[in-house]
Amino acid sequence: MSYSKPNSSSATGTRLRTPNDYCPFSGMCVVCLDGCIGYCEIAKSALRGREVIYPQPYGKITSGSQKDYPIDYSHFNILGSCIGAKGIDPDPDIATFPNVNIETEIGVKEKIRLKVPWFTTGLGSTNVAKENWEGVAIGCAISGTMVGVGENICGVDPDSEIKNGKIIKSPEMERRIKLFKEWKKDYGDVIVQENVEDNRLGVLEYVIEKLGIEFVELKWGQGAKDIGGEIKLPNLERATQLKQRGYIVYPDPEDQFIQKAAKIGGIKEFERHSRLGMVTEEGFYKRVEQLRKAGAKHISLKTGAYRAKELALALKVASESKIDMLIIDGAGGGTGMSPWRMMNEWGIPTVYLECLTYQFCEKLAKKKRHIPSIAIAGGFTLEDHIFKGLALGAPYVKLIAMGRAPITACMVGKTVGNLIKQGKVPEEYKKYGDTIEQIFVSCAELKKEYGKDFNKIPTGAIGVYTYFTRLSAGLKQLMAGARKFNLSLIDRSDLIALTEESAKISGIPYVMDSDKEEIDKILG
């Protein structure tokens, strides 16, 4: 059985000449014909080379792994009950799903309250993140949760002012933070992330001292790739600007032969890469202390789908430094310009990574060590994923981090909203009406909450908010079915493993072995 289909994907705009007749391992057509103009990844790479490494078209898409991993969250089911209620009076008129409490909080010294147990993780310098930031940030703010400003924002901002190698002004960073803060009320916060390049530029010191940021994040990596952040650059001028700012840019925009090729259209795009982070335990502790002295009240660490010993190191340093949150991002997710084959073929998939996280947290707990609030990321989209993600890692996993899904909600909200304003309501939605208030079902509650300011909310943000209301209702229904009426009551006993292999890696009982002791008591 092949879990992955190489050599053709809609992500890279490639296909096979004989799509139903191919070699499972290589992904090539069984018969490769001399004379074929070339549709597959090999063929297009013969013409466009490294461009075909990445999902396309850049700046207009998000992308996630196509690989069918041996075990994922669908290999677990949520257990329900018809007896009693926990966290609420066991009264049918009181124990209703709308009364389920899904609010939570994180933080060591000072708490950050969240209306929902999920948030949008760091959206960086890719075009798709930049173009949809307004909708995602405002949508998260009015939903009462957090949003992360990702890596490389200041370094990539064409209007940034840099003096003596340090950032002193970034209009794009200011825009991102302002959009969230203008709509934030009593819940949530905006997090700003740092990678190697950001550290050199002094980005976190800048946002703490100049822009009033209290929550910062150190980044070791993500689930979509195990190298530094990447974007594509559309022209020679932009590529030259970023190389002069110290970024790694390929091909070299200062090479005269590359310049000539770009001018005649032979080279149509450039890649900007971040450097690889060189993590050390001592360096991490030192950086955390520097940020606290600079004024950071909350600190998180985001680590990727690296080998198990580096997950253990992330948990150790998070524990020792008593930071507020650790985000663990499993393979399979992705929002930006991750190399397509890397996105599919590297790293530990999310469900395995969470099972390891639980094992390692148990070891820390037995030693009575500090365990920060843990957020799991990597392909989560719907309420059943959220429930399973919280339950599988309980009591240590407190939050689910998402990237692609909120961006999708934002993009659709923005697109449909613009079409409605132009009088071009998509056929798919004409059955609901022809106005924003008729088609976006959450408009009534937003009008009630914001009054005249409702008209200032972009439809991308309405899309995010409405999507989040669906997740909230769905999660509450699942929790009510499990008779858990408070988020803190979700635990591993709420799951069963549907296969013996998923039971083996997780420690969750196989479905045919569940409740054995209780069954013996009932049946004598």
> Could you give a short account of the major beta sheet?
8 strands, parallel, barrel
What is the strand arrangement across the widest sheet? 4-5-8-9-13-14-15-16
Mean pLDDT: 95
- Reading off the top of the CATH hierarchy, the class of the largest domain is best stated as Alpha Beta
Protein model, in words:
By secondary structure, the protein is of the alpha/beta class. It folds into 3 domains: 1-53, no CATH class; 65-229 and 280-524, TIM Barrel, CATH 3.20.20; 231-273, no CATH class. 39% of the residues lie in helices and 14% in strands. The protein is built from 19 helices and 17 strands. The chain has helices at residues 41-48, 127-143, 153-156, 171-183, 196-201, 203-211, 236-244, 256-263, 281-294, 308-320, 340-345, 350-366, 383-392, 404-421, 436-439, 443-450, 459-481, 500-506, 516-523; strands spanning 76-78, 104-106, 112-114, 118-123, 147-149, 161-163, 166-169, 190-194, 215-219, 230-233, 248-250, 270-273, 298-303, 325-329, 373-377, 397-402, 495-497. It has an 8-stranded parallel barrel, surrounded by 8 helices. A 3-stranded antiparallel beta sheet has the order 10-12-11, with helices on one face. Strands 1-17 form a two-stranded antiparallel sheet. Strand 6 and strand 7 (166-169) form a beta hairpin. Helix 14 (404-421) packs across helix 17 (459-481). The longest helix is centred in the last third of the chain and has 23 residues, at 459-481. It is globular, with a radius of gyration of 24 Å. The protein starts with 40 loop residues before the first helix and ends with a helix.
